[in-house]
Amino acid sequence: MAGFFSGGRAARRDDARLGRGVWRRAHDRFQRALDRYHQVIEEIPDVATANALVITGDELASLLPRVRVVCEGAHRAAPSEGTDIPASAHGWLSDVHRALTRSGNALAATAEAAAMVRLGAGGLDAVHRRAAGVAEFVSAAEDAFAAGPGED
Known about the structure:
Layout: H1 2-18, H2 22-40, H3 47-61, H4 64-77, H5 92-118, H6 124-147
């Protein structure tokens, strides 16, 4: 019976750490795109291609905890329960949110590029280029968060 209740506890813990607003949505968007990437790369017949996509998938998965740390920190700095970036966050945290959003979008584009590889209509280089962009946006979010409020 512990499994039945553990999902509810995890959801409440996420609500406390990420809120239900923009920071939670940024985190969840990234996680959904990552899940989609892994779904797309299943059942690729060519072993070398499949292995290359799995390695890239592992690199992308290693970014999720970093996204979570930024989202949790942003929620602590400017709690969000709605669809708007909190007014107190319009300075430096707007840059954080923008980079997080771009990382999720870039990851979705990476999944799309992997789907093209799966269909034989694209190359691994496109997947790797897009994955590098995801890492850059995550780093940009971390840098913007680390910079703090500064002097707006």
